[in-house]
Here is the input.
Amino acid sequence: VVTLLTDFGWQDPYVAEVKGVLLQTFERLGGGEPWPRVVDLCHTLPPCDVRAAAWFLARVHPNFPPGTVHLAVVDPGVGTSRPVVAVQAARCHFVGPGNGLFRFLVGTADLTVVRLNAATSWRGEGFPPAPTFHGRDVMAPVAARLALGCPIRELGAPGTAADLGSLEAWPAAVESEAVGSSRPIGRIVWIDRFGNAITDIDRASGLGDRLSAGAVLRLAGTEVPGPVLTFAEATGSEPFWYWGSGGKLEVAVDRDSVARRFGWRVGLAVGWTAP
Amino acid sequence: VVTLLTDFGWQDPYVAEVKGVLLQTFERLGGGEPWPRVVDLCHTLPPCDVRAAAWFLARVHPNFPPGTVHLAVVDPGVGTSRPVVAVQAARCHFVGPGNGLFRFLVGTADLTVVRLNAATSWRGEGFPPAPTFHGRDVMAPVAARLALGCPIRELGAPGTAADLGSLEAWPAAVESEAVGSSRPIGRIVWIDRFGNAITDIDRASGLGDRLSAGAVLRLAGTEVPGPVLTFAEATGSEPFWYWGSGGKLEVAVDRDSVARRFGWRVGLAVGWTAP
Amino acid sequence: VVTLLTDFGWQDPYVAEVKGVLLQTFERLGGGEPWPRVVDLCHTLPPCDVRAAAWFLARVHPNFPPGTVHLAVVDPGVGTSRPVVAVQAARCHFVGPGNGLFRFLVGTADLTVVRLNAATSWRGEGFPPAPTFHGRDVMAPVAARLALGCPIRELGAPGTAADLGSLEAWPAAVESEAVGSSRPIGRIVWIDRFGNAITDIDRASGLGDRLSAGAVLRLAGTEVPGPVLTFAEATGSEPFWYWGSGGKLEVAVDRDSVARRFGWRVGLAVGWTAP
Here is the structure.
């Protein structure tokens, strides 16, 4: 399996070209075996938002079978000195830019990082990489080779965790503005199609115990009761919190967008106040 | 073949997670056979609109080959007492919530309904179903098992047509408002990307004969002549009606959105007046 | 491989129905072989914009492996006298309307054109083609047959390049308005998700030499310096030009939409002025 995660959108030729190169590589090197499957994860990530890409992939990848190759291309620094990497971790492979997108893999047992500086594993003769499209010309051929069983160490030079790069820190202003006098414990990291706000507060964080003991969850001055188990438990049109399907604290209102109702955005800090 | 029909949208992790679980299940239980194919039907259904999902699936499923498994997740009542079901009908399988989505299958010969209350057919140990995401944790593993050939009766407890649930009736206000003095015969059930209005009036309804005999089709006060066979027959920029590719009466204008031009929406009643 | 390129959008049943018919045809005629793969190129082409479809396919198809069947349906004249064609060219097949979409293939060595007027290669008994949906009822079954290895000449009557039709010329007004006193050499043919403007000026056009010798690229009165190799080379928030990943001249600003900033659209002429 090769999965695709990009900020290319669906309306342009870029996703189609990446898929074409994957299939061309399967055809050239696959030797009559059934070709690996190609699965779209998402192509409408916010443009150039590496943090969003990292969040998405960290959440989704554990659902895929061992051996999956995740090709992730959110690469505003394409063509600069940032490395392009292949990573082996968690029984899967990851291919993309070393701009922090794969930072979340650091700490995984048996992490292997390879810098993709070997033109022999790229698209091939007659196809020098376009300086603005390494996703198609460098990363896709490598992802295809990994999916066909090529050992990762043959695809480039040994690298280290430093080659994975780092994500920018969240801007501080948003945090202080939003939390007010409450104690910050996390922030909103995703707003989904239904307008539900997903935070980075983990179920294992102990916040649940505090809130059971009378503490109150707060976002930008609004008190949010909870937890509920299902949306049907919510009464009226008040916001509530619950442990979401990704194991993190989420905030919603039933059949409406909590984000639009309160003007909440990604980056907003979440806090709590003692009873 | 497993098809996917949801209101998850393309921008969130939910579709990707469902696909991952399907592939994980194929990998665990597939035994080296080629994996079933996964096909996206639509993920941008109007959020929580079970009626839209039912309309879409009823129209599309006959185009798929025998043995297809249709996994449909529009499930605003997730985690409540509504059942989760697997259905065998029309030489295919259907998996989803018992909230009316599959009501259209009632009347099909050899209908089999199974309630998916057996944890053994769910995602497996270590993955208790998230109360807000049965599509991933309950329905996807079952759909994968059906696609791998598992008999439907082994996946849960025998159910009945009542377990399929019912759709809400259309709100009456829209109907009386729209039809005026004409005789209501149906309503708009879908507006497509081109702005064409698809109704639920079937070609076999006899309306065609009435309209040939001089009756006039009316929507919200507007007379709509017809039928035309192709859009190229339309003259000028007037609306017209025709028998659409799904066998139902549709209304359009050439190279414009009839829905936007007249402010028509899903639910609007369609009537006719005698000559 | 069968690729799909349409203006159907993702929200309607049309793409799903085409996929269903492809799979139904594989199931009926495939004889137990592994089914060809179905790949979405794009479904959000501007509605009825045959020129956009032609541009997209001309750019993308060389990335796919030999033997690929490209099914392209942007067909505002569906049901009229425009032919439906299958084309063999560049070691691939193309199926769609003869409305200019495949005009770009003229000049390819060994071009074979077949008019799809033989009902025996359509969807089959019980499925007369809907006058408004030849993509599903005529083209998809033919594309499936080609992907299964059926010789193109058995699918219809011999045709000629004239059956491919022609694209409308660009409206002249846009050109004169935009270029001003500069010498027109091309125009914007695509605006991508990032707001970058892709022109039809080829790297082999010699413009690069002129611009190196001091000539200045101009769009609608704005001087655009360049070329840069990567976006990171750009200084500040000024527009710049570069040779894009499709081999054409593109104009952008770093981390912003050049199209929105300057109000540029597809069709705008690009010129240059001597130093």
Remarks:
- Helices of chain B lie at 14-29, 50-60, 134-147, 172-179, 207-212, 258-262.
- Chain B is about 20% helix and 25% strand.
- The longest helix of chain B spans residues 14-29.
